[in-house]
Structures are given as C-alpha cells and as structure tokens.
Amino acid sequence: MADTDDFSALYERGMATRRTVLGDSHVDRVQSAITDFDFPFQELITEAAWGTVWSRPGWSKRERSMVTIALLAALGHDEEVAMHVRATANTGASREDIAEALLHVAIYAGVPAANRAIKIAKQVFDETGAGKMG
Questions:
Q1: pTM reported for the whole predicted model
Q2: What is the largest CA-CA distance in the chain?
Q3: What is the per-residue DSSP string for the chain?
Q4: How many whole angstroms separate alpha carbon 5 and alpha carbon 95?
Q5: What are the pLDDT digits (tens) for 67-103?
Q6: How does pLDDT run across 27-75, given as a tens digit for each residue?
Q7: What radius of gyration, in Å, describes the C-alpha atoms of the chain?
Q8: Of 70, 72, 109, 117, which is most buried by a Cβ count within 10 Å?
Q9: Rounded CA gap, 33 and 91, in Å?
Q10: Residues 98 and 86 sit within 8 Å (Cβ to Cβ)
Q11: Considering only CA atoms, which of 106, 48, 56, 116 is closest in space to residue 80?
Q12: Is residue 134 predicted with pLDDT exceeding 80?
C-alpha cells in the first residue's frame, strides 16, 4: 500500500469529508480492511467522491445526502443506501428529507426501487433509534 506521506491534499480533504459524513468508526473500519488489492479503489473514491464532489461548495452535506440516497436507491445499491441513511445523523438530512427523496425515486426510477429503499431506511431507523417523523 502507499505510504501515507504520499497522500495528496485532495486525498486528505476527502478523508476529512468522508469522516464528517460517515463517521470515524465507519471510516476506521474500512481503512483497517484495505489491502494492496483495493487500495487504488479506496484512494480513487476518497479523492474523487469525497475530496472533489462531496467537498464542493454550493450544496450542503444535507442536500448531497438526499441526492445520494435517491441515486443509490434508484440504482438498487442497498448496502450503500443503508450506509447513507445512517450518515444522515451527520449530514442533517431528516427522516422527512429521506421520505421526500424516496418519493422522487418512486416517480422517476420506479415504485419497486423506492419500496426497497423505504424498507431499508425503516430498518436503519429501527437499528439506530432514529425518532419518528413530524
């Protein structure tokens, strides 16, 4: 794996953003499992997704969170939906925000995709003890 002295400023910014959104425990768990095989992938997503897209000005973490959840739900990426629903505790996106995003998924990507994502979100809410809507 690469020496940490070789990490770019973009990587460092990405790692800071990733920790802010997903939380230290999640990022530490991922980091501890990195091997030579997947290090290039982890470096890519840290720089591109977290260091570039998630770190851009203009949209809040809340807004990026809602869009991310909707896109992941539309594409059927269940594990990522759950991870980003959990991350809303750090991004400020509320249960109401998630519900609205998933209504858009139902209309623009299909009811089955939204239905599956709603089940996943409810499961995460139950696991995390997230409060009721309203």
A1: 0.90
A2: 48
A3: ---GGG--HHHHHHHHHHHHHH-HHHHHHHHHT--TTTHHHHHHHIIIIIIIITT-SSS-HHHHHHHHHHHHHHHT-HHHHHHHHHHHHHH---HHHHHHHHHHHHHHT-HHHHHHHHHHHHHHHHHHTPPPP-
A4: 40
A5: 999 999 999 999 999 999 999 999 999 999 999 999 9
A6: 999 999 999 999 999 999 999 999 999 999 999 999 999 999 999 999 9
A7: 16
A8: 117
A9: 25
A10: no
A11: 116
A12: no
- Least Cα distance to 97 among 71, 50, 122, 63 occurs for 63
Asked if pLDDT for residue 112 goes beyond 90, the answer is: yes
Find where tokens 């990195």 sit.
34
Q: Which residue has the tokens 């953003």?
A: 17
In the predicted model, is pLDDT for residue 4 greater than 80?
Answer: no
Taken in order of first residue, the domains within the chain and their CATH numbers are: 7-56 (no CATH), 60-134 (1.20.1290.10)
- Structure tokens belonging to residue 119: 């089940």
